[in-house]
Design brief:
- The complex is a heterodimer of chains A (290) and B (156).
- With 290 residues, chain A is α+β, with helices and mostly antiparallel strands.
- Chain A has three domains: 5-51, Uridine Diphospho-n-acetylenolpyruvylglucosamine Reductase, domain 2 (2-Layer Sandwich); 61-171, Uridine Diphospho-n-acetylenolpyruvylglucosamine Reductase, domain 3; 178-288, Enolase-like, domain 1 (2-Layer Sandwich).
- Chain A is 34% helix and 25% strand.
- Chain A is built from twelve helices and 14 strands.
- Chain A has helices at 12-22, 35-40, 76-79, 82-85, 90-96, 102-105, 110-116, 122-129, 147-150, 227-233, 242-255, 266-288, and strands at 5-7, 26-29, 48-51, 61-63, 67-71, 133-138, 141-146, 151-153, 156-157, 164-171, 178-185, 195-203, 209-217, 224-225.
- In chain A, the strands form four sheets. A five-stranded antiparallel β-sheet of chain A has the order 4-5-10-6-7.
- In chain A, strand 4 (61-63) and strand 5 form a beta hairpin.
- Chain A is globular and about 60 Å long.
- In chain B, 49% of the residues are buried.
- The longest helix of chain B is centred in the C-terminal third of the chain and has 14 residues, at 104-117.
- The termini of chain B are far apart.
- Chain B has a five-stranded mixed β-sheet with strand order 2-1-5-3-4, with helices on both faces.
- In chain B, a hairpin with a 2-residue loop joins strand 3 and strand 4 (56-59).
- Chain B has helices at 24-32, 87-94, 104-117, 123-129, 140-150; strands spanning 3-9, 12-18, 50-53, 56-59, 72-74.
- Chain B contains five helices and five strands, in the order ββαβββαααα.
- Chain B has two domains: 3-78, Beta-grasp domain (Ubiquitin-like (UB roll)), CATH 3.10.20; 87-150, DNA polymerase, domain 1, CATH 1.10.150.
- Classes of the chains: A alpha+beta (290), B alpha+beta (156).
- Chain A binds chain B through residues 1-6, 29, 32-33, 35-37, 39-40, 49, 51, 53, 100-104, 106-107, 189-190, and chain B through 1, 3, 19-21, 23, 42-44, 47, 50, 56-59, 61-64, 66-67, 110, 113, 129, 131-133.
């Protein structure tokens, strides 16, 4: 078996120093809910596990006029119901209540879920639709990266050597005219979804679509932006316009070419993208207009 | 490299040595010798290895042993004994909520956590709580009835 060391820094700067010191062999453990599986299956063979369990300052949820900031160590269970306290986060709430089960949500962290970069992660999809950014700390200071640029592929992120994800920032928007929603389909309760879609819409004074984002998950290594579908809607009437939303669904479906698997062939996933895109848009519009 | 792990399991203190990649389940079963916590999928899907850590439900195959260092763990052995069954254990027997029995320790811990948080759950609450516990014999209906029969009792 691998020779492995276990380190427990107590601050972000100490964690970053250890990450630099141990280079590629170092892996961060937050809640451990994915790492335990990677270790057991030999998919990760770190020389040093850097547990951030005792790192302080990463467990806060703060709201300001600019948005909501969520610490990397906030557990998914704490986010269950977050849409009630922070209504701009309802799309994240849509996702979290369906992730795995209470046992896992009790310890799985938001930062861990993002950094794992699982191709089926709904969390990244919802956060991309919400235009979230992540804050990365290192010995050189901090940098902020849009989440859609942070997750670069299946199990791959843009985190550089010695960087630690410390915060997720979800920018605020006008709840009177904008909203986001996420819709997923999973074969069994708690499973990763076959497909998940996140949608954000904002309406102008006349009720036309001012801005829209459609993000499709589990059809590629990283979440995919369905740009043609967005262009179809931007500037046009969308409230109650079922035809336009259905067309957007079809354009989103035409945008992806997911690999099939025995439980869900590619054509099935593509059909789901069409349906879930329409449903996510409908729900976002309902929220934006109510 | 082995590290010292100090755990309080069912109110008893244990000091053992574990590798960083050893899970809490391995620490409990192999390190301490309490085999009531079952090992099945080792992939976080089945929930047979469910225990409580500091009052929070967790699948012990998904937590590294060292993450639980200094914490208090409750396993099925701490819930009740053959001579002094926990009301949930008695109810599972009474309602025949056990067939092969492999999922039972995890289901009982999950049921305990549910009733600790919500003494009067609905049938839907109970079914939702069991999402993370797979039973391939299919005792869910009996288990749900068993939990309902204990719900609201003061001596849980």
């Amino acid at each position: 078996m691998i020779d492995c060391h276990y380190l427990e820094p107590t601050s972000v700067s100490e964690a970053c120093t250890l990450l630099v010191e141990h280079g590629d062999g170092a892996k961060v453990v937050a809640g451990g809910q994915s790492m335990a599986i990677l270790l057991r299956n030999g998919l990760s063979q770190p020389s040093h596990l850097i547990s951030i369990q005792h790192v302080t300052g990463l467990e806060d949820i703060n709201a300001s006029s600019e948005g909501v900031t969520i610490g990397a160590k906030v557990t998914l269970n704490r986010l269950n119901g977050i849409g009630e306290t922070h209504p701009t986060l309802r799309a994240l709430d849509d996702v979290v209540r369906g992730v795995a089960d209470q046992q896992i949500r009790n310890f799985a962290t938001l930062g861990g879920a993002i950094c794992e970069a699982h191709p089926a992660s709904d969390i990244t999809v919802a956060l991309s639709a919400l235009h979230a950014t992540v804050k990365l700390a290192s010995a050189n200071g901090e940098r902020t990266v849009p989440i859609c640029d942070f997750v670069t592929g299946a199990f791959a992120t843009a985190a550089g050597p010695g960087e630690l994800l410390t915060e997720v920032v979800i920018p605020s928007f006008d709840l009177a005219s904008a909203a986001a929603a996420h819709r997923r389909f999973a074969l069994r309760a708690g499973d990763y979804p076959v497909v998940g879609v996140g949608a954000f819409v904002s309406l102008d004074g006349t009720g036309n679509c001012e801005d829209v984002r459609i993000v499709v998950g589990n059809c590629s290594g990283a979440p995919v932006h369905a740009q043609e579908a967005e262009s179809r809607l931007r500037g046009n009437s969308i409230v109650g316009n079922n035809g336009a939303l259905a067309e957007a669904g079809e354009l989103a479906a035409a945008h992806v070419s997911p690999a099939g698997d025995p439980m869900a062939p590619s054509e099935y996933k593509i059909d789901l993208v069409s349906v879930l895109t329409r449903e996510a848009l409908e729900e976002a519009i309902t929220r934006a207009t109510s | 490299m082995k590290y010292p792990l100090s755990l309080t399991v069912n109110d008893e203190n244990y000091d053992i040595l574990v590798e960083p990649y050893h899970t809490l389940m391995e620490a409990i079963r192999d390190g301490i010798g309490l085999t009531g916590t079952k090992c099945a999928c080792e992939d976080g899907r089945c929930g047979t290895c469910t225990v409580m850590v500091d009052g929070q439900l967790v699948k012990s195959c998904l937590m590294l042993g060292l993450q639980a260092n200094g914490k208090s763990v409750l396993t099925i052995e701490g819930m009740g004994s053959p001579d002094d069954l926990h009301p949930l254990q008695a109810a599972f027997l009474e309602h025949g909520a056990v067939q092969c029995g492999y999922c039972t320790p995890g289901m009982l811990l999950t049921a305990k956590q549910l009733l600790d948080e919500n003494p009067n759950p609905t049938e839907d609450d109970i079914r939702s709580a069991f999402v993370g516990n797979l039973c391939r014999c299919g005792v869910y209906t009996h288990a749900t009835e068993a939990v309902l029969s204990v719900a609201g009792e003061e001596n849980r």
